Amino acid sequence: MTKLSIIIPCHNEEANINLFYQALKDEVAKHNYHCEAIFINDGSKDNTLAHLKELKGTDDLDIKVISFSRNFGKEAGIFAGLNEVSGEYAAIIDADLQQHPELVFSGLKFLNENENYDAVSYCQEERKEGFVLGFFKRTFYKFINKIADVKFVQGASDFRVMRKCVVEAILQVSERNRFSKGIFSWVGFNTKYLPYVASERNGGVSNWSFKQLFNYAVSGIVSYSSAPLRLSTIFGLGLSILSFLYIVIVLIQKIFFEIDVPGYPTLIVVILFIGGIQFLMIGIIGEYLAKTFIETKNRPLYIIKEKIESKAKND
What we know:
By secondary structure, this protein is an alpha/beta fold. The chain contains 10 helices and 8 strands. The protein has an 8-stranded mixed β-sheet with strand order 7-5-6-4-1-2-3-8, with helices on both faces. It starts with a strand and ends in a 5-residue tail after the last strand.
């Protein structure tokens, strides 16, 4: 029997765990697959772990709970789940019921019917977000697709189903600064992008603030493009040319036309402009150095505090 491993990262999802598990059980019962649900408790501060410990496996659904020692982030949770995969297929889905488990099996059916595809990635048809946030997201995708070496599909999320070969390829990418959207694209494989409509979040609040999304976007740009570093060379060359031309103009005005060039205001403007550009370039270089610094530490991506497995029948 085909086995499917379903990875569910959880952070403060006490309001959703039981409802999600019931929805998952209902879907598993409709299909002829043996499944394992791998819940990753990413340092939750509420009763998420307590609810996870109460879950019991069924005839066709095993339960595995991986609890981190603290919050390491969703990227670490995904990587930890992929490390635990034992099925021929794997899926990643959130626990807030915005992504329904039914779609996991739709993606699995597509892969079974289309052997030339290795993964299915779900993209939101319509995102329920503010104008400002939507504008910044669209701008991010346009910008990163112009400078990155891989293609980023707008709206594509971590919600996907994939064959074991894709999982093994992702696990080979052992970098600490993980940006899953980029990693999924970088490893290649034939991926089918399917649209879906996200449901309303069942309970709790989103763990993503605008600041976190901005930092995530910067991480993606730094991880998959060196183009910002080339800005230093471009700005430096441009300012050198402008400075040389300005010196020539000043000399011509002074020698041939005896025009006095106001010094103080011009000097202040030039200093502030060049100083701002320098700080911008130092900041960009600093982002790359910081990522390199973290990588060289070689710290583990996550630490497991507790691991629980349940294969018992649900009474």
